[in-house]
Specification:
Length: 377
């Protein structure tokens, strides 16, 4: 198969031609032809996002709407998260679970008043849509949004830049969401993102996405950022990537995601449980009895420890696996995310990563490795 033929079979986002025009290096990702980096290169793109503002095309993600009076209650039967009490104009992190307590996908849920707005991962999009269609009651309508792109503007100067086009966004707090015009374009804007920095995710009509992207990148603070830097940015800030750090064999308790399960869904009362795998997940919460835990690891040498690297204890017994790893451009040291045997998950525990036949020492470290800078007012 030729490269040209392979590319033809990939889906493209509404910004594909613009990426090619500005010299992006395109790679297959989750069934799409996506920009992995631009002229700056991954490390400089990473550092630019931490210092100024980066623009990401995340239009490959799935955008959905749930309509109907019972939409929040219906969604609660599929996630261990409080959706019913989610205030209008607010967004929340959630995940679908299976009957074994494993995570089918992680997602964002927002209350836009007359409907719920849901964003799911690109690689799980079709599966998630099928899952919702199979389980939602007749009074709740699932609308698949296929005429909108999704941009993320991230970094300490993101708010200043976006407020030049729409001053109202400056007053938004972390996880606020609203329908607002940006440069005359009807957008859905949330103050959130996947970099650990302050910033926004902007759902924009597909036919106006290029115009908005050109307007944003015309500001000197803003550079295009590819998937390479998106990955190192999210990892430094301790954020999971589905299919790597989370999967359908991993429970939220093993994944150290207990913070995302609100007390109303796990500590008694009418809305405790009632989601797939609830018995297993609630039992793990109560007993703290899991065989493995997701942890952060910091390298004690300069060598990055990548996904798939096996981990051992001082006696040479295999005790875990690295699920994400980077050189840590901002952290200044190699950082990884891994699952290790639960008795070795305490902060400060030394483990050893086998890299090219050498046992490299690493320490279990608290995440995030770089402070999150979300704007909470």
């Amino acid at each position: 198969m030729t490269q040209e033929h392979a590319t033809q079979e990939l889906l493209i986002t509404p910004l594909h031609a613009l990426h090619v025009e500005v010299g992006a290096k395109m790679v297959p990702f989750a069934g799409y032809d996506m920009p992995v980096q631009y002229a700056l290169g991954v490390k400089k793109e990473h550092l630019h996002t931490r210092e100024a503002a980066g623009l990401f095309d995340v239009s490959h993600m799935g955008q959905l709407r749930l309509h109907g009076e019972g939409a929040a209650a219906a969604l609660e039967t599929l996630v261990p998260v409080d959706v019913v009490d989610l205030a209008e104009g607010k967004q929340r992190y959630a995940f679908f679970t299976n009957e074994q307590g494993g995570i089918l996908d992680d997602l964002m849920v927002a209350n836009l008043g007359d409907h719920l707005f849901v964003v799911v991962n690109a690689a799980c999009k079709d599966q998630d849509i099928n899952h919702l269609q199979a389980h939602l009651p007749s009074g709740v309508e699932l609308e698949i949004i296929d005429d909108r792109a999704l941009l993320a503007l991230q970094g300490p100067k993101a708010a200043e830049v976006l407020a030049r086009l729409q001053p109202a966004v400056a007053d938004m707090l972390f996880m606020d969401i609203q329908q607002v015009q940006i440069d005359g374009i009807d957008c859905i804007v949330s103050r959130s993102g996947y970099t650990g920095e302050d910033g926004y995710e902007i759902s924009v009509p597909a036919d106006q996405a290029e115009a908005l992207a050109r307007t944003l990148t015309a500001f000197e603070e803003v550079e295009w950022i590819g998937l390479g830097a998106r990955d190192s940015l999210r990892l430094e800030c301790g954020l999971c990537l589905y299919g790597h750090d989370l999967d359908e064999t991993t429970t939220p308790v093993e994944a150290s995601l207990l913070w995302a399960i609100q007390p109303v869904r796990r500590t008694g009362g009418a809305r405790e449980g009632g989601f797939p795998g609830a018995d297993i997940i609630l039992s793990q919460i109560a007993t703290k009895d899991v065989s493995r835990k997701r942890v952060g690891l910091v390298g004690q040498t300069k060598a990055p420890v990548r996904e798939g690297t096996e981990l051992f204890d001082a006696d040479g017994a295999k005790i875990g696996l690295v699920t994400s790893g980077t050189a840590g451009p901002t952290a200044g040291i190699p950082v990884s995310m891994a699952y290790v045997r639960a008795d070795l998950a305490a902060i400060g525990t030394e483990v050893f990563a086998e890299v090219r036949g050498k046992m490299l020492p690493m320490l279990v470290e608290k995440m995030p490795f770089v402070p999150q800078r979300y704007y909470r007012g």
